[in-house]
Amino acid sequence: MDLATIIGLVGCMVVFAVSILIGGASPIIYIDIPSVVMVFGSTFLAVFMANPMGRVFGLFKYFMVMVRLPSYEPEKTIRIMVEFSERARREGLLALEDNLQELDDEFMRRGIQLVVDGTDPEVIKKILYNDANQISERHSANIKVFDSLGALFPAYGMLGTLVGLIAMLANLADQSSLGAGMSLALITTLYGSMGANMFCIPIVAKLTDRNKDEMLFKEIIIEGVLSIQSGDNPRILQEKLVAFLPPSQREGLRAEAKE
Fold first, then answer.
1. CB 132 within 8 A of CB 222
2. Which end of the chain is more exposed for a tag (fewer CB within 10 A), N or C?
3. How far is CA 46 from the centre of its chain?
4. Is there a contact between 161 and 186 (Cβ–Cβ < 8 Å)?
5. Cα dist from 182 to 1, 160, 185, 191, 247, whole Å
């Protein structure tokens, strides 16, 4: 589990609740069922209009992607690529087929298989980049659902406030109800702002980072596969791949290569 995500999500709600209690207000006054139905119901129904039903029903799955730690291991992948490069130079590209089933990553296994099959380098590059781009497009489409929620929550919160204000002004003769009416009218704005800023916007940011991390991982694999096919020296291949890593991770791999 990604502790940063859990701490941020739970901590935000706790801080919000504690702030209400410290302020001396009763939490009960912030609960209004009609406002919940208006803001959350209208927002989710609008998202259904803007996206395919299957994508909206996958919201929980996308949320779990954010909560789980990514399984990408670029350093391990670079080590594997260097080992494959060394074996290819010693025994030939066909020898790599014996190790294909040891690869956990389907994308890497597919790339090496294309190399073993003698596929033209440009064709391999086109296939792998097309695959990676399609994955990124699917991620972007899924992120768009939360992006839509983040935009619609405040809008429907404001609409709920307008509805409440209209009802309050229609009953303006009853001066004693104005305070309570104004309070209820503003609750929808509160719900809309909370839905967008406490949940949707952070989720979009996290999922966007997850997508960038996966695309970087795919770039490392593509560069490694093409270098293996071209017969690059394993040390050159390693230098090409460590360039994708932050400086703090590069030295460890270089030190291992010298041993």
1. yes
2. C
3. 22
4. yes
5. 42, 12, 5, 15, 56
